[in-house]
Structure formats: C-alpha cells, structure tokens
Design a protein that fits this description.
By secondary structure, the chain is mostly beta strands. 0% of the residues lie in helices and 38% in strands. It has no helices and ten strands. One of its GO terms (biological process) is nitrate assimilation. InterPro entries: Rieske-like_NirD, Rieske_2Fe-2S, Rieske_2Fe-2S_sf. GO terms for molecular function: 2 iron, 2 sulfur cluster binding; metal ion binding; monooxygenase activity; nitrite reductase [NAD(P)H] activity; oxidoreductase activity, acting on paired donors, with incorporation or reduction of molecular oxygen.
C-alpha cells in the first residue's frame, strides 16, 4: 500500500471532546485534532500559521472555524485557510473516523 493512502490510529473517537482541540504525538510530530459539534473530525499540524507561531490545539472551535486566542485569527478547519483580513494557511492533515477510531494519514507523520 502506498504511504499516502495508509492511515494510523491515534485514539478512540470518544477520547476527542467536542469543540476542544487535542494534541496527539505521531511519528515524532504533534498533530492537533478537532472534533466538531456536527461529528466531523479535522486535524492539522499543531503549528499556528502566524509568523510568530504557537500551538493550534489551544484555539476555540465554533462551527467549522478555529479561533486562535493568541493572534485573534480565524481559521477554516475544512480548508486550513486563515480568514480575511489575515492571510495564511494551517497545514491540514488527512484524517478519517472508522469503527469509532480516529486515523491520521501516514504521510503527515513523516518528520520534516
């Protein structure tokens, strides 16, 4: 199986609280996982796209947006795009939920 199509488990869905970011360590990288109130799950590298950086997992989730408490940036979790007037993009990670388990794409776990 190609590495891009492989997924690895990072925890049971019930371990991810609704609207609260959670960091998982996988492949030496920190991944921020967000479970939305509508049941969807999104993941991103736990690195704020702001030039000064910072963790993403500490943001506040509302709908499908992540509100960054450090820089007051609004990030669309479906695309990773920072909303105007700010610009940038969070590095989103492919994630899926199967049989009550959250899975992260293997390609995202490669150290950079």
């Amino acid at each position: 199986m190609e590495k891009e199509k492989e997924f690895y488990p990072v925890g049971a869905l019930d371990e991810f609280l609704v609207q609260i970011g959670r960091v998982v360590e996988a492949g030496g990288r920190q991944i921020a996982v967000f479970r939305l109130s509508d049941g969807r799950v999104f993941a991103a590298l736990n690195k704020n796209p702001h030039p000064k950086g910072g963790p993403l997992a500490e943001g506040i989730v509302s709908g499908h947006y992540l509100y960054d408490p450090l820089y007051d940036w609004k990030i669309d979790l479906t695309t990773g795009l920072v909303q105007a007037p700010d610009t940038g993009r969070a590095e989103m990670v492919p994630v899926k939920v199967e049989d009550g388990q959250v899975w992260i794409a293997a390609g995202a776990l490669q150290p950079q």
